[in-house]
Structure formats: C-alpha cells, structure tokens
Amino acid sequence: MSADQYRPAAGIMLLNRDGRVFVAQRLDTTLDAWQMPQGGLDPGEDAEAGALRELEEETGIPARLVEIIARSRGELRYDLPTDLAGSLWRGKWRGQRQVWFLMRYLGQDDEIDIETPHPEFRAWKWAEPRELPDMIVPFKAELYRDVLREFADHLSPE
C-alpha cells in the first residue's frame, strides 16, 4: 500500500501526573467511543508542530502546558471501514498514517477547555492506558494497541 493513499496526521497520547491518558468523545458521532487527540497535518507541516497545533485546537491546551516525552519510531496507520472510506475526506484517503507523540500534561484539569472555536469533542476524561483499545471505534483498536506498544517503556506498569 502506497503512503500517498493515507492522510498524513499526528496523534497525541497525553498523560496526566497519575499516568492516565486524556480521551474525549467526538461531537460528530453518537457512539460511546473515546479517542485521543489526533488530526491531519497541513501541507509541509512538521509532525511535532502539527501535534501541538491539533492538541490546542481540540483541547484548548497550549504547547507551554505539555512536555514531549517520546515520538513514535515511525508512522502508525489505520484503514477506514469501507462505508466511511468513500465519504470521509471526500474519498481521497483510505486511512491515516500518523506520527504519535507521548506528552505529559503540566497544567491543571480546569485549564482544559474542549469548547474551542471549532469544537470537536462533547466530553473528556482521564483513562487508564490499558483501557484505550476497548474505548475507541473498533477500526482504530489495533492502532491504539500499536501506540501502547510504542510507548510501553514510558507507561506505568499496572
């Protein structure tokens, strides 16, 4: 599969002081699914800059309130289900290829504001890392297992 069939993107696994992960529910779905912040990169945008931009756009958390702990060794991918592939992103992409960043949140919970100028989420919470694959939409579960493997050395053993 060619990399150009996948939308370039960045993802953020944001940890709080207790080692729990920020997850949120999207506004555009009624599913009881939770996801980590992620989004497409602008043309020519560096993955780290894109990750920090997406984090602020989606959660209201500015770069000054996070510390980057690790970056994925390469790109992680997921494929869209057939029923979404033709409609999402005007059918241009079959999925996403993402560079993931593990970040530590340095702020307080009351500084998180998902009511951004262009909101994407209706609710947020902190979750245990091991819970992530069961919280996301099924077609991204393997991606989340890959993210957990990628950052396993930095996550607290349970």
Automatic annotation (TrEMBL):
GO molecular function term, any single one: bis(5'-adenosyl)-pentaphosphatase activity
**Quick check: keyword Hydrolase in the entry?**
yes
Superkingdom, natural source: Bacteria
Identify the gene encoding this protein.
rppH
The kind of enzyme this is, by top-level EC class, is hydrolase
Q: Name one GO biological process term.
A: ribose phosphate metabolic process
Q: What is this protein called?
A: RNA pyrophosphohydrolase
Motif Nudix box, residue range(s) on this chain: 39-60
Q: What EC number(s) does the entry state?
A: 3.6.1.-
Name what cofactor the protein needs. Mn(2+); Mg(2+); a divalent metal cation
Q: What does this protein do?
A: Accelerates the degradation of transcripts by removing pyrophosphate from the 5'-end of triphosphorylated RNA, leading to a more labile monophosphorylated state that can stimulate subsequent ribonuclease cleavage.
Arranged from A to Z, the UniProt key words for this protein are: Hydrolase
Question: Does Hydrolase show up as a keyword for this record?
Answer: yes
Task: Enumerate the InterPro entries for this protein.
Answer: Nudix_hydrolase, NUDIX_hydrolase-like_dom_sf, NUDIX_hydrolase_CS, NUDIX_hydrolase_dom, RppH
Q: Which organism is it from?
A: Sphingomonas prati
Assigned protein family: Belongs to the Nudix hydrolase family. RppH subfamily.
**What HAMAP family does the entry give?**
Nudix_RppH
Nudix hydrolase domain location is 5-149
Q: Which Pfam families does the entry mention?
A: NUDIX
